[in-house]
């Protein structure tokens, strides 16, 4: 029997920004529960909740101070149980964000660890002495700027933090840490959770010799600052020991039915595809993984083809998850806007592409509305990297602004209070109620495209074979058994004409037309073709 997650559409909910039901301006679990019918009606199979656990919120919940409780900002354990029950009633699976590589500096584990070098949790975090001149023990950078080491005067040592200084890294070389982390995961599985999204899944282990990283040999990766990308980060992450921990975590989840784990690989480019392959190889590691490979500025047929084909070749028995947007990157409608006739053209093209890809599909809340990036002023920001490096770094707040439910209600129906991030006019114009009332809206297109994918065995489970066409055309065939569909996308603003060497018909959502043996794709056009036997394409 094919597992539910292999062709699922996973809908990411950013709890702060989905629905606020208690009027404090921050979204909550009761609000999410009330709005779940929207997700079910969209055709999604699963929701992923960004962090909801107890946290000082220095990095919006990615700094956990209690792994086994709900932050009061979002509700209670009873609210969580009610959310799970309602989701399951609607046929939705639920996974949560597990931030295992680091904790908050307010976590009781860290508060004890920093008190001395010989207490019970002294070795639960990554501590190191200063170099003779007092400088940090390695040259490693933090993603959020500056060294990845913070000096603690209480222990007279440095501790490692790959992100904020308020997010110290756990020492996964200590088996007691591994056991404690596995126990926290078991806590949520026992409550009926359907799986985990594993944050920074390749950051768990560090080099015990504390070797400094060499300079990067390729184009720097840019996340929050370009200093991080100036190194080849081989000693502070993606260590071989990671695989052993993933196998332990998989053994835990295999004691439960129908559990899925998806890992976030913190890389871009071809290296990310290789890591995805390693982490999903066989049946004893992650069920699937995704990277930032499709979450960047690259928008070309060669790029998308290299991502998918690279995974096919590097992980023939692995499984990918593909997304175009999430809470860490600018929304793709805006990010790829230079390649589009309009925002709506990009929204439809991107949706049609994503629903044709082999593997599991990820959607970020508001994506189904064709939502655009919000332009914010400095005084409206909350994201730590943006606050520190503005204006060179705009941060992630622009993709995290609240969902827009009702165009004519205060704050578009998100909250009766002052929202934690503003709801602005360009975003409000794309509200759910307005799009439900319009026959050709982006929301209705998403529903149609997801339903089409669900109804087509070739799109759900078919293998991908690429067709050799020049830029800006991306073309491939999905086939399972006798079912086959040819998918063609025009990634430019200019019309493209393709010769069909065989009989073919348009099916499903499309922005194209056939005249005899010629297929015309308008700017940002796309087509799904059904055909008997072989069909070749040429330009």
Strand order of the largest sheet: 11-10-9-5-2-1-13-12
Largest sheet: 8 strands, parallel
Number of strands: 22
Structural category is alpha/beta
Q: What percent of residues adopt helix (DSSP H or I)? A: 25-40%
Q: How many helices in DSSP terms? A: 14
User: Could you list the spans in which at least 5 consecutive residues all have pLDDT below 50?
Assistant: none
Strand percent estimate: 15-25%
The N- to C-terminal Cα distance equals 41 Å
* Structural shape: globular
The Rg value, from CA coordinates, equals 23 Å
How would you state the average pLDDT, rounded? 95
Structural commentary:
- It is a single chain.
- The chain has 539 residues and is of the alpha/beta class.
- It has 14 helices and 22 strands.
- The protein has helices at residues 29-42, 77-89, 108-113, 175-190, 241-253, 269-280, 301-314, 332-335, 343-354, 384-389, 425-428, 432-436, 442-455, 457-461; strands at 9-13, 46-49, 53-54, 66-70, 93-98, 127-128, 149-152, 157-160, 195-198, 260-265, 288-291, 321-323, 360-364, 463-466, 473-480, 483-490, 496-501, 505-511, 513-515, 518-521, 526-530, 536-538.
- Strands 11-10-9-5-2-1-13-12 form an eight-stranded parallel beta sheet, covered by helices on one side. Strands 14-15-16-21-18 form a five-stranded antiparallel beta sheet. A four-stranded antiparallel beta sheet has the order 19-20-17-22, with no helix packed on it.
- Strand 1, helix 1 (29-42) and strand 2 form a beta-alpha-beta unit.
- It is globular.
């Amino acid at each position: 029997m094919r597992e539910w997650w292999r062709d699922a559409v996973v809908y990411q909910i950013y709890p702060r920004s989905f629905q606020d039901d208690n009027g404090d301006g921050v979204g909550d679990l009761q609000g999410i529960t009330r709005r779940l019918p929207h997700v079910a009606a969209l055709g999604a199979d699963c929701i992923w909740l960004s962090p909801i656990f107890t946290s000082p919120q220095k990095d919006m919940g990615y700094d956990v101070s209690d792994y086994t409780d709900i932050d009061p900002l979002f509700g209670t354990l009873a609210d969580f149980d009610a959310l799970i029950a309602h989701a399951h009633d609607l046929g939705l699976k639920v996974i949560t964000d597990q931030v295992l590589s680091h904790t908050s500096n307010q976590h009781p584990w860290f508060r004890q660890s920093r008190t001395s070098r010989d207490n019970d949790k002294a070795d639960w975090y990554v501590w190191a002495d200063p170099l003779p001149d007092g400088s940090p023990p390695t040259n490693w950078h933090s993603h959020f700027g500056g060294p990845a080491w913070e000096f603690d005067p209480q222990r007279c040592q440095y501790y490692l933090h790959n992100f904020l200084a308020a997010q110290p890294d756990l020492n996964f070389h200590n088996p007691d840490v591994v056991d404690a982390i596995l126990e926290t995961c078991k806590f949520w599985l026992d409550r009926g959770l359907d799986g985990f999204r594993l944050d920074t899944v390749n950051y768990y282990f560090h080099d015990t010799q504390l070797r400094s990283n060499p300079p990067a040999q390729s184009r720097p990766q840019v996340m929050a600052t370009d200093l991080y990308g100036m190194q080849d980060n081989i000693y502070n992450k993606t260590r071989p020991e990671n695989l052993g921990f993933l196998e332990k975590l998989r053994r835990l989840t295999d004691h439960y039915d129908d559990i899925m784990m998806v890992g976030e690989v913190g890389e871009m480019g071809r290296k990310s595809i290789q890591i995805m392959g390693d982490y999903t190889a066989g049946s004893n590691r992650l069920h699937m993984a995704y990277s930032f490979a499709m979450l960047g500025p690259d928008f070309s047929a060669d790029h998308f083809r290299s991502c998918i084909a690279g995974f096919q070749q590097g992980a023939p028995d692995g499984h990918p998850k593909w997304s175009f947007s999430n809470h860490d990157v600018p929304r793709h409608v805006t990010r790829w806007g230079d390649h589009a006739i309009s925002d709506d053209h990009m929204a439809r093209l991107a949706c049609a592409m994503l629903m044709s890809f082999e593997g599991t599909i990820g959607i970020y809340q508001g994506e189904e509305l064709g939502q655009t990036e919000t332009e914010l002023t400095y005084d409206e920001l909350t994201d730590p990297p943006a606050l520190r490096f503005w204006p060179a770094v705009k941060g992630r707040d622009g993709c995290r602004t609240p969902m827009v439910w009702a165009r004519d209600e205060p704050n578009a129906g998100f909250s009766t209070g002052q929202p934690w991030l503003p709801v602005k006019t360009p975003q409000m114009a794309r509200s759910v109620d307005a799009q439900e009332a319009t026959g050709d809206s982006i929301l209705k297109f998403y529903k149609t495209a997801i339903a089409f994918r669900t109804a087509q065995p070739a799109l759900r489970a078919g293998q991908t074979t690429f067709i050799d066409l020049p830029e800006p055309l991306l073309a491939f065939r999905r086939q399972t058994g006798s079912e086959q569909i040819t998918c063609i996308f025009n990634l430019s603003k200019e019309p493209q004409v393709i010769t069909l060497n065989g009989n073919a018909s348009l099916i499903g959502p499309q922005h194209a037309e056939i005249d005899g043996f010629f297929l015309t794709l308008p700017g940002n056009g796309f087509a799904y073709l059904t055909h008997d036997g072989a069909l070749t394409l040429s330009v």
